[in-house]
Amino acid sequence: MQRITITIDDDLLDVVDKLAARRGYASRSEAIRDLVRAAAVDEASEDRAAPCWATLTYVYDHHTRDLARRITGMQHHHHDLSVSTLHVHMDHHECLEVSVLKGPVGDVRDFADSVVTQRGVRFGRLQIFPDHGHAHDH
């Protein structure tokens, strides 16, 4: 780990301190490291060919005509991207799904867009994580 010195204006330092306090970071350094990591993830996710892992979270009305069938069909059509999906019945009308995806950023983004833009999908969010190809023993 390297130690660096930065110069930062008071207003921006106040933002860092409030973020650190709200999220419970042990130090400003931890807060700044996380901010830089988030920026690195954003930067990496701009390369459509870059490998990634992602979660696609969405809520939909399962009474919308053929929506559940269409979403399932899209998942099957893109089986190469789909690792796993969690399906939760929130109430009589709405379902929550969380899909874990793996593949090129562009393909993952395109798939996510095709799901969340379906009529009857109320909320949708894609979170992309770069795949650095590190092997881990679990």
Describe this structure in words.
Helix content is 39%, strand content 29%. It is of the alpha+beta class. The protein has four helices and four strands.
Secondary structure blueprint with pairings:
Elements: H1 10-23, H2 28-44, E1 51-61, H3 67-77, E2 82-89, E3 94-104, H4 105-116, E4 121-130
Antiparallel strand pairs: 1-3, 1-4, 2-3
Helix pairs in contact: 1-2
Poorly predicted ranges: none
Radius of gyration: 19 Å
First-to-last CA distance: 25 Å
Structural class: alpha+beta
Number of strands: 4
Element order: H for helix, E for strand: HHEHEEHE
Fraction of residues in helices?
Answer: 25-40%
The percentage of residues in β strands lies in: 25-35%
Main-sheet strand order equals 2-3-1-4
Described by strand count, sense and barrel closure, the largest sheet is:
4 strands, antiparallel
Give the key terms.
single chain, 138 residues, alpha+beta, 4-stranded antiparallel β-sheet, 4 helices, 4 strands, elongated
How do you describe this structure in short?
It is built from four helices and four strands; from the N terminus they run ααβαββαβ.
